[in-house]
């Protein structure tokens, strides 16, 4: 996105209404965050698509398409407005009553350059409660209904003609830990993506609500236990398949039907929640290492070279450990350190990680924070806390000129000294946007050349002569 578009998008986010911009052909140029929420389209996927494909406006009574009228703005230069009896059909099939206004965008010479469409969701009055004033029933993060609305709908739908009614409960496991390690923004992104998948799989008449930080509840009229299980399994399979942008995210779920309209929602919810809790320790959820997997998969998604290179560094570390005749446990630790040495980069700006040019001093300073960030992340996980000091020290140098602590010689843990060599060698033989990969002979020579300054001299010699083999040295 160009700088002026970035500025424009940032400005639009401060507007309470949803905004869509098009070009002269009526194709999408920009969606505000609110527009993304209401239409179900992301800005990136909507770009260059026809306005009428993204903003599907229907007559609420007849389902007649109204969107074509908005394109008349490009020909007439006059605004087109729908103030009532219109619904927006979102990407997931949900209908929302909206008020919209389309106006021409003109340049300094008054020539039409596109359309600016401003719209907002109309509040729906709760007729059952008979109140003139509307109470909001939506979760602001996902656009789903909230718990209050869900409970009201359960009372309304819990009639003989809708039985059996099933409740499906879906819980995002370890969400608190994910937010703690990856940040609230990443956690909120996961919540929204799970919500999108649930909406995609549910029927129009199903009621979906976010009832707590990590929990979603689906109200399924005229649905028995078997049918509800099929739906929940479909949602779980889709989450597994899509992996939420490479996140292997575990969900727990439970379903409970009711065949008696006398049953209260609290009773049915309790039964569904108990089934959900019983699933939290299944093999699928892998509670001992799921967080490390989630974080590393997130890093791999941010930097597609990281997964392959981490595997190579891990292999080199293990080979050095075997050559030194270290214990099996130490070799396993070395393999893991090689894999997760850059885990702290998950907290860094993707633009820095992908920058093709030379980094500025401030950007380099940011990159150099990743050992400390990795140390902090690992210290929150009992299973990996013992590796945190090695990750912290893997950019220290034998001569004391490394970072973050400036450790020198054998002050640096052995494991960190081994990773430093494996990491440096692998970086040299890997291509970068700003340089070509070195051949193995040249890279091996560089390791020996820096022995005693950057690297432990003994380990450098062992790596080149025993692990790589003498044939790599001229």
Keywords, please?
single chain; 474 residues; alpha+beta; 7-stranded antiparallel beta sheet; 4-stranded antiparallel beta sheet; 46% helix; 14% strand; disordered C terminus
Written account of the structure:
The protein is of the alpha+beta class and 474 residues long. It contains 20 helices and 11 strands. The strands form 2 sheets. Strands 1, 2, 3, 4, 5, 6 and 7 form a 7-stranded antiparallel beta sheet that branches. Helix 12 packs across helix 18, helix 12 crosses helix 20 and helix 19 packs antiparallel against helix 20. It is flat.
Rounded mean pLDDT score:
82
Strand content: 5-15%
* Integer-rounded radius of gyration: 28 Å
Oligomer: single chain
Structural class designation: alpha+beta
Write down the overall geometry.
Answer: flat
Q: Characterize the largest beta sheet: strand count, sense, and whether it forms a barrel.
A: 7 strands, antiparallel
Helix count, DSSP H or I runs of 4 or more residues: 20
Q: Give the termini distance in whole angstroms.
A: 48 Å
Q: How many DSSP E strands? A: 11
Helix content: 40-55%
Uncertain stretches of 5 or more adjacent residues = 125-135, 278-288, 470-474
Topology:
Blueprint: H1 3-13, E1 18-22, E2 28-31, H2 33-39, H3 43-46, H4 51-54, E3 56-59, H5 67-76, E4 80-82, E5 86-89, E6 95-106, E7 112-121, H6 147-157, E8 165-172, H7 175-182, H8 184-201, E9 207-210, E10 215-220, H9 225-246, E11 251-258, H10 265-279, H11 290-302, H12 306-323, H13 328-340, H14 350-353, H15 361-367, H16 370-379, H17 388-392, H18 414-428, H19 440-449, H20 457-469
Antiparallel strand pairs: 1-2, 1-7, 3-5, 4-6, 5-6, 6-7, 8-10, 8-11, 9-10
